[in-house]
Design brief:
The protein is mainly α. It has helices at 3-21, 23-26, 41-65. The protein is elongated and about 50 Å long.
Length: 69
C-alpha cells in the first residue's frame, strides 16, 4: 500500500473513533448488557476501538519508516 493510502485510512478511522466516543455516537453503545468477555458492551466497544487504533498506528509507522523504492 502507498503511504498516502495508509494515511487516508488512518485519518478516516480516527475520525470514526472520535465520532464513536463522543456524545452522539457513544449513546449507540451505552448499555450495560450484554456482557462481552465480562465487560459491559460500551467498555468492550471502547477496548476494541483502542485495539484497532493501535494496529492502524503501527501500520502507519511501518509505512512511514519503510525506505523509498
Amino acid at each position: 500500500m502507498s503511504k498516502s493510502m495508509v494515511r487516508g485510512l488512518v485519518t478516516a478511522y480516527m475520525l470514526l473513533f472520535l465520532l464513536a466516543t463522543t456524545w452522539p455516537g457513544a449513546t449507540l453503545f451505552n448499555t450495560a448488557t450484554p456482557l462481552v468477555l465480562g465487560l459491559p458492551f460500551n467498555l468492550f466497544v471502547l477496548a476494541m476501538l483502542i485495539s484497532v487504533a493501535l494496529v492502524m498506528l503501527a501500520a502507519l509507522y511501518v509505512s512511514e519508516t519503510r525506505p523509498e523504492e
